[in-house]
Design a protein that fits this description.
4 strands; 4-stranded parallel β-sheet; Protein-Tyrosine Phosphatase, Chain A; about 55% helix; alpha/beta
């Protein structure tokens, strides 16, 4: 699974969809581990506010599965958000924080061969869809 945050803002609906997608992925990963999940955040995208950080932490506190979660963010501020969320609650699944999508794909590939290339294809598809929608 690949989540992609882009653009200069995130609405409350965007953040709720992200949480809903994480919970849906957790259910889908049952019986299919090892699993991987990558969140790619482009540089201009802002971090979630404190209320959303707490909601994300609470929603992901007791997952059914333990996928590798990779945050690939160009912004050091965004990478720091994962640290803040992990202070609220310690992750019970492996977490990797990297500064580029390519590093993220490499981490996925190390954890689950083939996952990095699949994630790259998913992100490329999302980007193409965004360009087509313009």
């Amino acid at each position: 699974m690949v989540c992609w945050f882009h653009g200069p803002s995130n609405s409350d609906d965007d953040m709720q969809r992200y949480i809903d997608d994480l919970l849906r992925a957790d259910r889908a990963f049952e019986g299919r581990e090892p699993a991987v999940l990558m969140m790619y955040v482009e540089h201009e995208n802002p971090p979630p506010n404190a209320a959303w950080r707490a909601r994300i932490a609470n929603a992901t506190a007791h997952p059914r599965t333990k996928p590798l979660f990779v945050l690939a963010a160009e912004s050091a501020l965004i990478r720091g958000v994962v640290t803040a969320i992990n202070w609220i609650r310690r992750p019970v699944y492996p977490v990797a924080v990297v500064s580029s999508a390519d590093e993220g794909f490499a981490r996925l590939e190390q954890h689950l061969p083939g996952a990095g290339e699949k994630a790259r294809a998913l992100l490329d598809g999302l980007r193409l869809g965004r360009r087509a929608a313009r």
